[in-house]
Design a protein that fits this description.
Helix content: 25-40%
Shape: globular
Largest sheet: 7 strands, mixed
CATH superfamily of the largest domain: Fructose-1,6-Bisphosphatase, subunit A, domain 1
CATH architecture of the largest domain: 2-Layer Sandwich
Number of helices: 6
Number of strands: 14
Distance between the termini: 29 Å
Mean pLDDT: 93
């Protein structure tokens, strides 16, 4: 499997899904409520349809696990591979119209994200990565060159320096204050969706502690970007965040280190 060529294809699919989202973002849209009380919009459904059709048309024939059809997932293929998709990550940010929402597509192989594409269509920015290829940021729109720019984490701050911490805009955690107190001097940067991991990947933030609930599809794509940019996504016990058991949709608490 040529991950470089596959990355190009998946980037195109994610941007098509972004276009479908923006067509709905520009007008009034309906909002439903899922069983878990989280919101669901027309845009979630439209992006899901675009992505599933695009991934199923690829020659690799890899099964798809999407947030919007988790029950339809039949398991990884014989090589331990599956697509992990959040068609619209940050639905609350979408509803607030603050632009901080993304399309997330990851390729999982033997429990690890080996390819990831994160597209933020309202911000006109993408983050891309594949094992052996690297991690990149792409900015498009007026005045932008749409070229892939290599990105890398900043590394641990110098002794006594202030940590740049990125945190959730919509999901504050009561455990976070205690963790930050132990960290020491820090500045907090609020951000929505998987963009939090991407800020660490590009060196704009040093760490992202997530001491609250997330699902596999919230993190898979950006996790790939962080790893290929030289960072780590680890549980509180220091083990890499794993995607080996997709039937268990919830992630444990984790820390993204630059």
């Amino acid at each position: 499997m040529d991950l470089s060529t596959l990355l190009d294809s998946v980037e195109g699919i994610a941007k098509q899904a972004g276009d479908a989202i923006m067509a709905i973002y520009s007008r009034d849209f309906s909002i439903e409520e899922k069983e878990d009380k989280s919101p669901l919009t027309e845009a979630d459904k439209a992006a899901h349809e675009v992505i599933v059709a695009g991934l199923n048309a690829l020659p690799e024939g890899v099964p798809v696990l999407s947030e919007e059809d988790a029950e339809g997932f039949t398991g990884a293929d014989a090589n331990g591979r599956y697509w992990l998709v959040d068609p619209l990550d940050g639905t609350k940010e979408f509803i607030k119209r603050n632009g901080e929402f993304t399309v997330n597509i990851a390729l999982i192989e033997d429990g690890r994200p080996v390819l990831g594409v994160v597209v933020a269509p309202a911000l006109e920015v993408s983050y891309l990565a594949a094992q052996g290829v690297g991690a990149f940021k792409v900015e498009w729109g007026e005045g932008k060159d749409s070229e892939r720019q290599p990105i890398h984490v900043a590394g641990k701050p110098a002794e006594g320096a202030t940590w740049r911490v990125v945190g959730s805009r919509s999901h504050p955690s009561p455990d976070l204050a205690e963790w930050l107190e132990k960290l020491g001097s820090h500045d907090m940067v609020p951000m929505g969706s998987s963009l939090k991991l991407c800020l660490v990947a590009e060196g704009v933030a040093d760490v992202y502690p997530r001491l609250g609930p997330t699902c596999l599809w919230d993190t898979g794509a950006a996790h790939a970007v962080v790893e290929q940019a030289g960072g780590r996504v680890e549980t509180l016990e220091g083990t890499p965040l794993s995607y080996a058991t997709p039937s268990e949709k919830l992630n444990p608490y984790f820390i993204v280190w630059g």
